[in-house]
Specification:
The complex is a heterodimer of chains A (456) and B (162). With 456 residues, chain A is mainly α. Chain A is built from 20 helices and two strands. Helices cover 77% and strands 2% of the residues of chain A. Chain A is globular, with a radius of gyration of 20 Å. The relative contact order of chain A is 0.10. Chain B has 162 residues and is mainly α. Helix content of chain B is 60%, strand content 12%. The chains are: A mainly alpha (456), B mainly alpha (162). The interface between A and B is medium-sized, with 21 and 19 residues.
């Protein structure tokens, strides 16, 4: 199977859908079908990569370093599958709930094309191009609904993230200046021989840029208004798919291209991650609206990814990847169930809540177990205590929502039963991965091994 | 923004893009930045901030950052005690905080910085009345809340974002 197939499929689908009225059910379902086809092709690609190893193509058979190169390794492929799956669930939810804007299905497809490109490119400048494609579509999608607060939140989202993009572009310019190449493999090799001061400047630009995208404390202030204002499907896509760019970017640039710098700056990553976990959890506990709790929870949960990155090595990177996957699934599940009611959806929400808190039998339990392993690997009792404390706090705020919204204010869902389907399917995925975690653990270890710093 | 600050900012961006602060690169950056500024001088907005005042504001920024961090720690601690049941939940509610003689930028900055501390959320800004509507975890004494924010504003905030 050609590496370009999933990317081309979704991109062509986006271009065609952009010409049509997305409010028509046939067009909206066509977009869901295109995402479904993209998801299946990415799953096949992931399977091929896991069996045969990384695959690379250069567009137009141009010599390496000249043509646009795509490369699928385990890390990129797993993030591509995850993000496409989240977009598929989010768009299906919005379509069932009725699409109100003609552009929304096309925007989601453009997000899918951009994300697939980000995770499958082998070139840092194309990474930026696909990254921008994703973000521009996300800025527009975040205003879906057209209410004043949604447009205001979209404006904040765009401005703050453009600042991050600007920093990232400066970092890329610096990388090209000092290495003379844009190819990721070449960049990694050249940076290892570069003056440490120049590498530190590049690393700071990249870290701040991706921290803004992820919504890490203290770069988080754009995140709550956007997640709270967005509709459930869009919030799920932003938190479960678009935010993956931040996690993947930190892993790819930190773990693959700048592993020595990230190892040297582990203390800074630990402080930022710890602050994010505690700040996000305390803010989430103090909120009453479910969307606000989930928004602040998102700030706290990405802190764990940063902590695992700080530990580094095969164990730390595998934990970071596994936690990023589980966190994306959890957030998508929770956003897609939080505004629907009924015992079945309540059960699905509870599974998501248990997963965030790291309670078995959910996938989140293994996310926390891997983090504990990383903490023990780092021989840090404080880290282990922090992970335990963070889990306990998340248990409190998740079940505050459950108690308030699903026990006390129980009422029939306002929409049809079909609205429950994406949430139920995702809950099953979270549950199955909790009961049979071997594939998830194997994939995250394989993906960590794709990183220079994750090979031990 | 003063001409000097524009020149410094552009030179800094140039240096970061090269990942080098070598004297020759900085000198090249200054020349290129000056050329860019000269080329777009017709597009420049009014220089409404004297250079000295701007330098003071930039110099005071770390102090403001430290003060806001202190507020975040205070808010996190106080909220943690309430969450853990070690302190009773006070009286959450809305408080109107006057923002006398502040620019729109100053009011926007105050809203963002105030919301960073757990326990306080800015609900609305009335620019015409110069009032910030704040939801706070303890609104039992609105005057104390206003006084706390006034001190933060007078001592730190207004010096950076007038």
């Amino acid at each position: 199977m050609s590496l370009a197939l999933p990317l081309g499929l979704v991109w062509v689908g986006a271009a065609v859908t952009a010409l049509l009225d997305g409010r028509r059910r046939s067009v909206a379902w066509l977009a869901v079908g295109v995402l479904g086809a993209g998801f299946v092709s990415l799953c096949v690609l992931l399977a091929l990569v896991l069996v045969d190893g990384p695959r690379t193509i250069v567009a137009g058979d141009w010599p390496a370093g000249v043509g646009i190169a795509l490369r699928a390794d385990a890390l990129g492929a797993v993030f591509a599958v995850l993000s496409m799956g989240v977009l598929l669930a989010g768009l299906a939810y919005e379509v069932v709930d009725e699409v109100e804007s003609r552009k929304t299905p096309a925007l989601v497809l453009f997000m899918g094309a951009g994300l697939t490109g980000v995770f499958l490119t082998a070139d840092i400048f194309n990474f930026y191009v696909f990254f921008e494609l994703t973000m521009v579509a996300a800025y527009a999608a975040s205003t879906y609904g057209g209410e004043r607060h949604q447009i205001g939140a979209g404006f904040i989202f765009a401005i703050v993230n453009l600042l991050g993009t600007f920093l990232f572009l400066i970092g890329l310019a610096a990388i090209y200046t000092v290495t003379g190449t844009l190819d990721m493999d070449g960049v990694g090799v050249a940076l290892a021989r570069t003056d440490p001061t120049a590498v530190a400047l590049i690393g700071v630009s990249v870290l701040v840029a991706f921290s803004i995208k992820l919504g890490l404390f203290p770069f988080h202030f754009w995140l709550p208004p956007v997640y709270v204002g967005a509709t459930p499907g869009i919030a799920a896509m932003l938190s479960g798919a678009v935010a993956n760019v931040g996690s993947y970017g930190l892993l790819r640039f930190g773990g693959d291209l700048l592993p020595d710098l990230f190892a040297a700056g582990a203390g800074v990553l630990l402080v930022l991650g710890t602050a994010s976990i505690l700040y996000g959890a305390i803010q989430a506990i103090s909120r009453r609206s479910a969307s606000e709790v989930l928004a602040y929870s998102a700030i706290g949960q990405v802190g764990y990814v940063l902590i695992a990155l700080a530990v580094g090595g095969p164990v730390g990177y595998a934990a970071a990847i596994l936690y990023a996957i589980v966190n994306a699934l959890n957030k998508t599940l929770l956003f897609l169930t939080v505004r629907v009611r009924g015992w079945l959806v309540g059960t699905c929400f509870a599974i998501g809540a248990l997963s965030v808190a790291g309670v078995p039998p959910s996938a989140g339990f293994f996310g926390k177990v891997e983090l504990f392993r990383a903490g023990i690997e780092a021989r840090s009792a404080v880290l282990v205590a922090l992970i335990f404390l963070g889990g306990a706090l998340s248990f409190v705020y998740m079940f505050q929502i459950y108690q308030r919204d699903f026990w006390r204010d129980q009422h029939e869902p306002s929409a049809g039963r079909a609205l429950r389907v994406p949430g139920v399917l995702l809950a099953l995925v979270v549950l199955v991965l909790g009961l049979w975690p071997e594939p998830l653990l194997a994939v995250s270890r394989e993906a960590a091994a794709a990183l220079t710093g994750g090979r031990g | 923004m003063s001409l000097a600050l524009r020149l410094v900012s552009l030179t800094l961006i140039y240096a970061l893009a090269l990942a080098s602060f070598a004297p020759v690169d900085l000198a090249t950056g200054v020349v290129l930045s000056a050329g860019c500024l000269a080329a777009v001088r017709g597009l420049r907005g009014p220089d409404d901030t004297p250079a000295g005042e701007l330098a003071q504001r930039v110099a005071f920024f770390p102090v403001l950052l430290a003060a806001v961090s202190g507020e975040v720690v205070r808010g996190t601690w106080s909220l943690s005690l309430i969450v853990l049941g070690l302190r009773p939940l006070p009286c959450p509610g809305l408080v109107e905080v006057p923002m006398e003689s502040r620019s729109e930028t100053g009011m926007a900055a105050a809203a963002i910085l105030t919301t960073l501390a757990p326990g306080d959320v800015v609900v609305d800004m009335d620019v015409e009345r110069q009032i910030m509507l704040l939801h706070t975890i303890d609104a039992s004494d609105p005057d104390a809340v206003r006084e706390r924010l006034r001190l933060l504003r007078d001592r730190y905030g207004q010096r950076v974002f007038p």
